[in-house]
């Protein structure tokens, strides 16, 4: 493993990042082709169904791929899917060495792509910048391991930890630039989820404005079916997918009224809260990779209690609201000891026109990496 391998793999990871929001449920993949220490080709998976990163990079390299090294952030595929196998394109291009950041746990690949190239006589290296590759595709890896989408919890709060005043007013805690960034995040998601109390209090649309690479579905946890038929969510259900998760508390009349407007009803058993794990199972069956949970506090608390918050994206405004803590970001059962509180990893902190943006991830209990 040469020292240059790390440099070029980081270049490939930067390429892969360019596909965020456009390639799911596929993973983000980047590739570069290097010959005699010089970059001769680069590419990334641009959108679902489009040519893979290796094919894009080899196409740019052309004849210069002969005898070159190909760097790729994920093991090349060896099966026919939306596109032909990348292994065959690599062999046809005359590449003599392949460096992959990590193996692909997808069952139709799972080491088979690298084995095919090794059997054909290519030199193979695996594991260069593997941590970066795993972080990049954590949503893809979670969905493969568990069948459930990767959950990002997003909220805005004051310096004293309030998500609204005592009267329920929350517009606006964060500044305009922060809200622009939230819409960018929304446009990369498969779905955006809130609880019924948030839907009733704010009457949100839960859309990305301007639109991003994805059009996220909207999900409301509404056990009793209280979402008003006059709400913006219900009235736009025929234009943008709207899922209403109900339990047996919802009457047939309420189900029918929402369904008549185009809302898709997700029924769950029991008369208690919507079960988080069963809900995530259903969203995963629909091919969803990324879910943004925007609240309120009881919903975020329920996801935390279920161990199903993978990342957070928090905007902290330079404001102090005071008063009693009626509205806080996460409620639920919580932890009885501070020592047991979840600890955020890989924190990123940025200043956004006076707001503080804090991003990070929690250790993945679902991890199933080779």
From TrEMBL:
The active site is at 54 (proton donor). One of its GO terms (biological process) is riboflavin biosynthetic process. The keyword Protein biosynthesis does not apply. Zn(2+) binds at residues 52, 77, 86. Residues 3-125 form the CMP/dCMP-type deaminase domain. Its cofactor is Zn(2+). Its EC number is 3.5.4.26, 1.1.1.193. Binds 1 zinc ion. One of its GO terms (molecular function) is zinc ion binding. It catalyses: 2,5-diamino-6-hydroxy-4-(5-phosphoribosylamino)-pyrimidine + H2O + H(+) = 5-amino-6-(5-phospho-D-ribosylamino)uracil + NH4(+); 5-amino-6-(5-phospho-D-ribitylamino)uracil + NADP(+) = 5-amino-6-(5-phospho-D-ribosylamino)uracil + NADPH + H(+). PROSITE patterns: CYT_DCMP_DEAMINASES_1 (PS00903), CYT_DCMP_DEAMINASES_2 (PS51747). Pathway: Cofactor biosynthesis; riboflavin biosynthesis; 5-amino-6-(D-ribitylamino)uracil from GTP: step 3/4; Cofactor biosynthesis; riboflavin biosynthesis; 5-amino-6-(D-ribitylamino)uracil from GTP: step 2/4. In the N-terminal section; belongs to the cytidine and deoxycytidylate deaminase family. In the C-terminal section; belongs to the HTP reductase family. Converts 2,5-diamino-6-(ribosylamino)-4(3h)-pyrimidinone 5'-phosphate into 5-amino-6-(ribosylamino)-2,4(1h,3h)-pyrimidinedione 5'-phosphate. This is Riboflavin biosynthesis protein RibD. The lineage of its organism: Bacteria, Pseudomonadati, Planctomycetota, Planctomycetia, Isosphaerales.
């Amino acid at each position: 493993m040469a020292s240059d391998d790390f440099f070029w793999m980081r270049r490939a990871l930067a390429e892969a990042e360019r596909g965020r929001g456009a390639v799911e449920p596929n993973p983000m993949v980047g590739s570069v082709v290097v010959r005699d220490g010089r970059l001769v080709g680069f590419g990334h998976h641009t959108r679902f169904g489009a040519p893979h990163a290796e094919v894009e990079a080899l196409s740019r390299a052309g004849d210069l791929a002969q005898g070159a090294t190909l760097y790729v952030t994920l093991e090349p595929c060896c099966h026919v899917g939306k596109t032909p196998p990348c292994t065959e394109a690599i062999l046809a291009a005359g590449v003599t060495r392949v460096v992959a950041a990590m193996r692909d746990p997808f069952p139709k690949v799972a080491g088979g792509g690298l084995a095919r190239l090794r059997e054909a006589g290519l030199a193979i290296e695996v594991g260069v910048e593997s941590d970066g590759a795993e972080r990049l595709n954590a949503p893809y890896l979670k969905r493969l391991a568990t069948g459930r989408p990767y959950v990002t919890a997003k909220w805005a709060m004051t310096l004293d930890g309030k998500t609204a005043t005592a009267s329920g007013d929350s517009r606006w805690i964060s500044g305009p630039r922060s809200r622009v960034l939230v819409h960018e995040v929304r446009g990369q998601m498969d779905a955006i989820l809130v609880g019924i109390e948030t839907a009733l209090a704010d009457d949100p649309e839960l859309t990305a404005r301007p639109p991003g690479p994805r059009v996220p579905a909207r999900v409301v946890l509404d056990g009793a079916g209280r979402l008003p038929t006059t709400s913006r969510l219900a009235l736009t259900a025929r234009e943008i997918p709207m899922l209403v998760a109900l339990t047996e508390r919802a009457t047939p009349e309420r189900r029918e009224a929402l369904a008549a407007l185009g809302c898709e009803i997700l029924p769950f058993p029991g008369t208690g809260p919507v079960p988080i794990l069963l809900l995530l199972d259903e969203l995963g069956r629909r091919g969803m990779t990324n879910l943004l949970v925007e609240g309120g506090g009881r919903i975020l608390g329920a996801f935390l209690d279920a161990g199903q918050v993978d990342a957070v994206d928090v905007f902290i405004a330079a404001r102090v609201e005071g008063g009693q803590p009626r509205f806080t970001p996460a409620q639920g059962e919580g932890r009885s000891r501070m020592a047991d509180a979840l600890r955020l990893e890989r924190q990123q902190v940025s200043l956004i026109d006076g707001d503080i943006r804090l991003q990070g991830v929690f250790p993945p209990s679902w991890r199933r990496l080779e």
